[in-house]
Design brief:
- It is a single chain.
- By secondary structure, the protein is mainly α.
- It folds into two domains: 99 residues, no CATH class; 299 residues, no CATH class.
- It is built from 19 helices and no strands.
- Helix 6 crosses helix 7, helix 7 runs antiparallel to helix 8 and helix 10 packs parallel to helix 19.
- The longest helix is centred in the C-terminal third of the chain and has 32 residues.
- The two termini are 21 Å apart.
Length: 483
Amino acid sequence: SASVRSAGVFLLSSAFYSALVCAVRVLRKTALVLLYKDIIFIVLALIASAFMIVSRKSLGAKFCQSAFLSFIFFEALGLNRMAIDSDTPPQNRFAFAFFLGLAFGVASYFFSAVTVFLYVVAALMLALIIYSPESGLLAAIILIPAANSDIIYIVITAALVSYFFKLLRGKRNLTLKSEDIVALFAAAVFVIAFRTESAAKTAITVCVFFMASNLLRSADLLRKSAVCITLGLGVNTVFGAAESIATLFGMAPGTISGVLPVRLLTHDPLLTVVSVLWVFCVMHSRSFKMPSVFKVVFFTAAVLETAFSLSDTVIAAVLITAFIYFAFRSGRFFNVLFAYAAALPLVWLIRFIVSGFVTFAPVAPLLPDLSGLSATQLLFGGAECGTNLFAVFISSFGLLGCALTLLMLLMLLSRAMAAASARAEGMRQFCAAAVASVTAILLLGVCYDTLGTRHDLVLFWALCGMISACGNAVPYDTGADYS
């Protein structure tokens, strides 16, 4: 594989020619607004290249030895370690790296150097997704909290194309079990009746279910999907909690998360509740290979984000879904019930004391107005979408679509219960978090427009696909790595 020195030469050449472009901009006094970001990039590239040029290792060996890079690429994105790790000596490709840096510098004249760097990262990610559709699916799960949903759809489409070509070459399988047949009909009704998105985007969203059900075919990949959804939601809650704390000191909302290249959906009630559940999941088993510092930071941020929401609806949803999680995980319903009966008075007392200083948003369900629907629309859908989840289901899908969706959820619940009873490590926690997350969508659907943004749709079908994948993964779990 290529040497780390070659990558260092690329960064050094990119920084040098980007600096020349910045000098030309200063002399011509053009695009000075982009100059500050370019200077920061140049400084960081020079610092990184100084360490990389003196290294004698290959890029593959560096990826495998670095704890952070191993976590991102092997544990989060599901890349096979054997595809990168190699005993071959590193190869220096200085000339190629130099001319790539020259092309980077020329491109930075027309765009910002940061923008060009993001394009390079996007091209590398696209190549990774074409090589491994599982990595594209896991990357889409990480990007669920991203406000710019077009990025999510691009990643999902790339993963779908890669999966299709793998199917044609016989390197991946497509399996539809009895539960998936019901989901197929429910997805068809969903695509036809749902009117808040274009048909193409809605179809791509539904494809997440079938990709997750067929690509996550081992317990190891399911555990990696849990790490991915925790990572994406955890970063979102960390920035949300940081913004809430910064707001207390007079900073403008969005100041902290504005430094990221992707805008996050901070303070989203649904994402806050679901993040709490998946943090519980990864903390309760060592089989989910996430650094302990990430677990502690994400748990603290999730608790702070729930408290800063000052919403009775969010707090009640966290308590109810956490009860479902612990009851499903332990299999001891009455023990969890007695523990909750002892803890709820303390929670109510804390809320009563805090309410003397701040005002909590009361529970205000958005009741659907179905008075204007005809009998045909009520049975088969076709009306305008309502204000919350249940109004959307009834007005758009009709009672037929609601029945199919309910049947799909019940079949997925049975599959989750069967997978949780298996002895695969971490599967009980995984199934408990997934079932509780779907319950959170249904609970918050009473009070919020949970289907008002595209990320909620992707989250719903991704969770359903992950539950469906449990039935495919557990029988194949014989200790082998299918990633």
